Amino acid sequence: MFTKPRGIAVFAAVLAAIVLGGCSKPKTAAGPTGPPAMPATLATAELQTVPQELQAIGNVEPFSNVQVKAQVAGELMKAQFTEGQNVNKGDLLFEIDPRPYD
Asked: Are 82 and 70 in contact (CB under 8 A)?
C-alpha cells in the first residue's frame, strides 16, 4: 500500500491539518468592532453660567495665621465659630464664663 516514508508524511499532514484546524477561531461577519454608533444631534450655542468644581489631592494652607489671646482668665463656655469659617477683626470668637466677674 504506502511506503513507510510516504505513510509518515501523509500521517503528519493529516495530524497537522487536525491540530491547525482546531486552533483557528470561527470567522464572523466582517464589520466594525466596539460599541455601537451613537446618533449625532445638533444644538444651538448659548451663553450660560456654569459652576466650576475642582477636585484634587493636595495640602491647604491658610491665608494668614493669627494668635488669639484672652484678655481675661476664665472657663471657656462656648466657641462662636466653626472650623474653616472666615472671621473678621472684632468678631466674637469665644464665650468665657461671666459668673466670676459678676
From this structure: no
pTM above 0.85, yes or no: no
DSSP at 36: P
Total structural domains within the chain: 1
Helices (H) and strands (E) in the chain, counts: 1, 2
What digits encode the pLDDT tens for the residues 38-64?
A: 888 898 999 999 999 888 898 888 888
CA separation, residue 65 to residues 3, 20, 81, 82, 87 (Å): 100, 76, 16, 16, 12
Q: Is residue 19 part of a domain?
A: no
Range of the domain at 78: 71-102
Residue 26 has pLDDT above 80, yes or no: no
